[in-house]
Amino acid sequence: MTQQPPHDPFAHPPAPGAAKPGQPAPGHPAPGQPAPAGHAAPAGYAASPPVPRQPWGPREPWGPLAGWGTRVLASLVDGALQLIGGIPYVVGLVLFLVGVPKPGLHSTGSQLETAPTDTGNTGLMVVGGVLVVLGFLVSLGIQIWNRSIKQGRTGQSIGKKVMGIRLVDEHTGQPIGAGMAFVRELAHTLDGAVYIGYLWPLWDDKRQTFADKILNTVVVEVPRA
Description:
This protein has helices at 68-99, 122-154, 158-163, 178-191, 196-199, 210-215; strands at 103-108, 111-116, 165-169, 217-221. It is mainly α. The strands form two sheets. It has a two-stranded antiparallel sheet. Strand 1 and strand 2 (111-116) form a beta hairpin.
C-alpha cells in the first residue's frame, strides 16, 4: 500500500499548461522522440533523422554536368590525336594508286579496246599497302589506348583532360574501367545513327548520350584546384 505525500496547504496550484510531474514540458518531445521541425533537440533527446537526399537534385552528386559544347571539343581533340595514324594511311593510299597500272585505249583492227598501257609499279603498290595498314593500326591503337584504357582507368581521355571534364559511373562517381569504356565506345554506334544520340545531351536531364544511358555513365566537370 503506497503512502500519499502530505498535503501542503501553502503549495501553489500548477500554472495552466504546465507539465505534470513525469511528463515533458509543452513544446518539448518525449524522450526518444524526434524534435519538432525548426527546434534543436534538448540534451537527452534523440535528434530528428536527416532527410534523405535525392540522387539528382539542383547540384549533381559528382559535380556539375559537363556542357554539350565542351564534350564536342573534347571529342575533336581526341580525333585530332588519331590523325597521327592518318598520315601514313594517306601517304600509303597515294603510293598505292600511283603504282596501279593505268588503263588506256588500244586499237585492234576496226575496234578500240581498253587495255593497260603499262604494267604499273608493283613496289609502290606493296609499300603503299603496308603504309595503309600501318596507318589504320596506329589510328586504331591510339583510339583504344586513349578512349578505352586511359579514359576507363582515369575517367579522362586526352581531350577530356584538356577540356577539364571526366567520365564517371553515375552511381559511384568512379571511373568505369577499361573494359566498360571499350563497350561504351562500341555503344556509340547507336549515337551515330543520324547523330541523334550525340545530340541527345542537349535536352536530357543528365546530359547523357545513348551510350551513357546503356552504361550508366555521366560526364562531369573536374573541380578547379
